[in-house]
Specification:
CATH architecture of the largest domain: 2-Layer Sandwich
Strand content: 25-35%
Number of strands: 10
Radius of gyration: 19 Å
Order of helices and strands: EEHEHEHHEHEHHEEHEE
CATH class of the largest domain: Alpha Beta
Largest sheet: 5 strands, mixed
Shape: elongated
Distance between the termini: 51 Å
Number of helices: 8
Number of domains: 2
C-alpha cells in the first residue's frame, strides 16, 4: 500500500507555500504533483515547497519536483523553490537532476527570499464579460508592453489576448482574471474564467471582434492550452518577448 501524504497549501500571499508531510514514494507522487499543478494554475508570484515534514522513502520520487518545475517554466512561468529538506533528502537532491531544475534552500525564509528574486514582472486585471472587455484587453497589452519595453509584442499579444477574452465573453459568460507575465524569452498571457468547459480551436465569424477563433491563437503563439482550475479553467498562451 502506498504511504500516506498530506499537502497543506497557504495561498493567502503573493507567494504560495505548500507544506508536504508524510512519506514520499512512487505511490504518493501523483497527489503531490496534482497539488503543485493546481497551485501553479493559480499563477502565484512564486511557489515554495516546504519539505521539513517529508520522509523520502524512495529517492526516485523526488523527480516529481523537477517535473513540476519544468512544466511551470513553460507555463505559467512561476518559479519554484524547495526548502528545509532532511539531511538525507538534501543529499539525494544534490546527487540528482532536481537541483539543476529547482533551487533548494535550507529554510523557508531563505526560500521566500530566493522566490522573491526569481519572481517575474506581472500585470493582473479583472474583467467582466461585456462588450468592452476586448478593448480593455488591448489596453492592458499596450500598458504591459510599454512597461516592459516589448514594442514588437504589442500587435500579436493584442490579437491573442483579445481572442482569449472574447472567447470568455461569447462562450463562458463569467467574470475573468487576466494575467500577463514576462519570463523571458516569452510573454505569457492567461485568462481565468468560471467555466469548466475546455477551450477548443474552432472557427468564428471574421467580422466579430475577437472572433477570429483560437486557430489564430495557435498560429501566433509558441504554445497555448487550457488547464482546469478549482473554480473553472485557465486558457493560456506564450509569445516571444521582443
Amino acid at each position: 500500500m502506498p504511504s500516506r501524504i498530506r499537502c497543506l497549501v497557504d495561498d493567502e500571499g503573493p507567494v504560495t507555500v505548500v507544506r508536504i508531510s508524510g512519506g514520499l514514494d512512487t505511490g504518493t507522487i501523483r497527489p503531490v504533483h496534482g497539488v503543485l499543478d493546481r497551485c501553479l494554475t493559480e499563477q502565484p508570484d512564486a511557489l515554495v515547497v516546504d519539505l521539513s515534514a517529508v520522509r523520502v522513502e524512495d529517492p526516485l520520487a523526488l523527480s516529481v519536483f523537477a517535473a513540476a518545475a519544468r512544466q511551470a517554466a513553460s507555463w505559467p512561468g512561476v518559479p519554484m523553490v524547495l526548502c528545509a529538506p532532511s539531511p538525507d533528502a538534501a543529499a539525494w537532491l544534490a546527487e540528482s537532476a532536481v537541483c539543476r531544475v529547482v533551487p533548494v534552500r535550507p529554510d523557508r525564509a531563505a526560500a521566500a527570499q530566493a522566490a522573491a528574486v526569481a519572481a517575474a514582472p506581472r500585470l493582473r486585471a479583472r474583467l467582466d464579460p461585456v462588450a468592452g472587455a476586448c478593448r480593455r484587453a488591448r489596453e492592458l497589452v499596450s500598458d504591459a508592453c510599454a512597461r516592459w519595453n516589448l514594442p514588437g509584442a504589442v500587435g500579436p499579444a493584442s490579437v491573442v489576448l483579445t481572442e482569449l477574452v472574447g472567447n470568455v465573453v461569447r462562450h463562458a459568460g463569467t467574470p475573468m482574471r487576466v494575467t500577463m507575465t514576462l519570463r523571458r524569452p516569452y510573454l505569457h498571457l492567461a485568462v481565468h474564467d468560471g467555466s469548466r468547459e475546455a477551450a477548443r480551436c474552432r472557427s468564428a465569424g471574421r467580422l466579430a471582434e475577437g472572433g477570429r477563433g483560437l486557430l489564430l491563437v495557435r498560429e501566433l503563439t509558441r504554445g497555448w492550452g487550457s488547464s482546469p482550475a478549482a473554480d473553472g479553467k485557465v486558457v493560456w498562451a506564450m509569445l516571444p518577448a521582443n
